[in-house]
Amino acid sequence: MSTTSIARAGAASVAIAIASYGALHAQPARSVWDGVYTDAQAERGAALFDRACAECHGPAGAGGGMAPALVDAAFLANYDGQTVGDLFDRNKNTMPVGREGQLSPQQTADITAFMLQANKFPAGTTELPALSPMLKTIAFIAQKPSTAPSQGDRPPGTHQDNTPGTEWIRRLERPSRIAGLKTAEVVACLRLRPGDVVADIGAGTGAFTIPFAKAVAPSGRAIAVDIWPELLDYIKTRANAEAIANLQTVLARQDDPSLGAGEVDVAFFHDVFHNTNDREAYLRVLARYLKPGGRIAIVEQEFDDPIARKWDVADDRITPEQVNAWMAHVGFRLEASFDIFKGANNPKGTDMPERWFVLYTREATAAR
Length: 368
Hints:
The chain is an alpha/beta fold. It has two domains: 28-139, Cytochrome c-like domain (Cytochrome Bc1 Complex, Chain D, domain 2), CATH 1.10.760; 165-362, Vaccinia Virus protein VP39 (Rossmann fold). Helices cover 39% and strands 15% of the residues. It is built from 15 helices and nine strands. The chain has helices at residues 3-26, 39-52, 54-57, 73-79, 84-94, 105-118, 132-135, 165-172, 175-179, 183-190, 209-216, 229-241, 279-287, 306-311, 320-329, and strands at 30-31, 138-139, 197-201, 221-226, 247-251, 264-270, 290-301, 332-338, 355-362. The chain has a seven-stranded mixed beta sheet with strand order 5-4-3-6-7-9-8, with helices on both faces. A two-stranded parallel ribbon has the order 1-2. Helix 12 links the parallel strand 4 (221-226) and strand 5 (247-251). The longest helix has 24 residues, at 3-26.
């Protein structure tokens, strides 16, 4: 073959490779919910995992003394929004500890398939390829995509956010948000005392529940209330890590916090109350769970704050005047309001809207 022919052949090969790579990245993205591995591949991966990884990550990835679990809400939240290729690369470059890079690409793909199976993503009929670029076309989505209607299509009166629990972990734990919560000031405004029982309704990742538990210790309790099991599991993990023994979790219903009758001194909502469907009916149910001197605290976004308008449609934003009317109908009066999230008091650079903060008590109850 002449030099010219060789050059032409080489150029053609490069062109084909470039075209193939472009086609690879142009193909529609799949997700982990589309059956991207096989049961047989995951079986091979499980055996490899037991030999190479379980010593650190625990049997079946359940967690060990040297490394975190690979099958819990925190793991799912960590990879949510990334790709299977990112998980594959992490496995290839960091496992097994001390022998990084010794597993072949195929072995790494098999272990990755096992991890998908362990996290209850469905199997399919095609194995995961052992090529990172191909795996980067497969989205890692922690929660099965919902078929719930979008905001514009929701039935009238439906206000709850349908975002999955694992996605909320990622959103709620972003450092900028945590900096804007001012938890110590909130605790001071509520005047929590040892022995109090405080229910954090819509607790999320426990950003308020944890300091509430510390404020009412040792004889009081903080109750994390949420409708997402993943969030409650996350809070339990946090509480265990900090050796907090007076924190309880409750899996609630959308229209009922599912607490004990006459159990609660303070019920607290932070940017959550607007998600209830029938706000006044929810307050009426909640009142049954409060002690005679019980109080309800609500923090909500300023209705016309630019960030609030970006996040929520008008039906999903509420005003202090609306809350005041609902509270009056169920027998509560305004005890105090606080401006710690308003104007210059709202921490800058936290991407959090200005918020109003109100505290109510029963009509017949004197202020504490």
